[in-house]
Each structure stands twice: as C-alpha cells, then as structure tokens.
Automatic annotation (TrEMBL):
Domain NAD-dependent epimerase/dehydratase: 7-168
Name of protein: NAD(P)-dependent oxidoreductase
Keywords: Carbohydrate metabolism, NADP
Position of the signal peptide: none
C-alpha cells in the first residue's frame, strides 16, 4: 500500500528528477511531475504540469493537494543573477509558500555542495559548519536552506536540505572519486527523508560510501540513509590518467571544485 496519495517532484525533466520519477513511484498513488519544459513518456500514475517556478499563482496551484514535495527544480549551474533570482530564490520561496498555504508538511530540497564550496578539503565539516558559498548559485542554496529553517521553526514544515555533491552515472574526474553520489543512493536518501518518522529541519550531505570521507553526515543519521555504492570500481582507471591536478589550484583545495575558479556570471555573459 502506498504511503502517500500524491507527491510533487519539481525539476522532473532533469537528470536527477528523471531518476526520482522512477525510484519514488512505489511510495505514492500519484506522482505530480513538473518542469519548465514538457516531459515525455508520462506514465498513467503521473500528472505532468509545465510550470515556471517564478510564477506565484502557477506554483500555488502546482502545490495544491499534494502530501509532500521533492523540490529539485531551478537553475542547475552558475548563471546570471536575474535568472538565479527568479528560478532559485523566488521560485523556491513560492514552493515553500505553496506548502504553507496548501498544508504540505514535508519538503525535500536539492541543495548543493556549492553552499559550502569554499571549505577546504582538510576541514572535515558537518551540518553545523558555517556556510561558505563558492558562487551565486551557492548563495541561492544558502537562501533556501535559511528559508526552510524559518518555515520549520515558524510554520512546522519539515525539510531535508540535501547538499548534493556530484551525482552522475559514474565519476567523471578525480574529484568525483570522493564526491560522487550514485543515482540509486540519491533516490534512497530522498526516500528515507520522505518516510522517516520525524525529519525536523535537517541538513544532509549527499555522497556515496566512497573511501575518502571529507564531510561528516552523522547529524542526518535519524533519516536512516545508508549508502550502498562507492567509487572503488572506477579508481584504478581514474588514477592512471596523466592529467594530475595542481594541489594548490582552487578547484582542488576547496570542496566546491571548479566552481571556485569561476568568475562572476554577469561578467561572463558580457
């Protein structure tokens, strides 16, 4: 028997949204999937809605009659500030307002390593370490983490802010040997957050069970996430590559990787 009548997934056309559509379908009788573009292969149990997150009225309707929200929508990379403001900041505010007004009590939010990207590799941070965004994208994630804290303290809406590090089919570079989150581990983390008895306001760090432990995720232990995958099968091939990175480069020194080497996106646009 499904635990939910209806779950909303935003960003459902994206890389992780596509995985979540499949991986969470057993939890609900209906999955409402949404993105700013039309989606293909809509299944009988899915309700597909095209929606711009910056459109307040549209998001109020999008969040109506849902039991939980998996919010993975928004700009996925560093972009100009106006786009970031509308997609990530204003759009996420609309999601939380929709949750408040429509009585939704649990939100799973796709935060990012880039909210804390300027911490060093040797810092061994946890959920209580100060935020150190490496980009405007990271700042937008900090905003929503704070927003979700307010909506828990003031309105009782539970949230997991899942700081996703590197979630791809397989590791693409040396950094991902420690930062990789497999698709199946990502789905498991979200499922555990949806179904655990009490979520409260939790900061989680989305990394698989890789050899190098850069971040302590124990303060999210009440969720019950136990990663099943790791990068050992990819290690030998990755470590034999000749392009050994400079250990003093910002993309190597800091956990945010190459985002720490980007300039201001509005300068780049010009």
């Amino acid at each position: 028997m499904a635990q939910f009548e209806r779950i909303l997934i935003t960003g459902a056309a994206g890389r992780l949204g596509t995985e979540l559509r499949q991986g969470l379908k057993h939890l609900a009788n209906h999955i409402r999937i949404s993105d700013r573009v039309a989606m293909e292969d809509v299944q009988p149990h899915e309700e597909a809605i095209v929606c711009e997150l910056g459109d307040y009225e549209a998001v109020m309707e999008l969040t109506r009659d849902v039991d939980a929200i998996v919010h993975f929508g928004g700009a996925p990379l560093e972009v100009d500030f106006e786009t970031m403001l509308d997609s990530n900041i204003r759009g996420s505010y609309h999601i939380y307002e929709g949750a408040r007004k429509n009585g939704v009590k649990r939100v799973i939010y796709a935060s990012s390593v880039h909210a804390i990207g300027y911490h060093g590799m040797e810092d061994h941070i946890d959920a209580d370490s100060p935020v150190r965004p490496d980009s405007l994208y990271g700042v937008s994630k900090n905003f929503v983490e704070s927003l979700s804290r307010l909506y828990w303290d003031k309105f009782g809406i539970e949230s997991l802010c899942l700081r996703i590090f590197s979630s791809f089919p397989e590791p693409a570079d040396r950094r991902m040997l420690w930062s990789w989150l497999s698709f199946s581990d990502c789905v498991q983390y979200v499922e555990r957050a949806l179904t655990c008895p009490r979520l409260g306001h939790t900061i989680g760090h989305g990394i698989s069970d890789n050899r190098l432990k850069v971040v302590d995720d124990s303060k999210a232990g009440h969720i019950g996430f136990h990663p099943q995958d790791n990068t050992e099968a990819f290690r030998a091939a990755m470590e034999t590559k000749t392009d050994v990175p400079d250990p003093n480069a910002p993309g190597v020194k800091f956990i945010g990787g190459w985002f720490c080497e980007l300039g201001h996106p509005d300068d780049e646009a010009k």
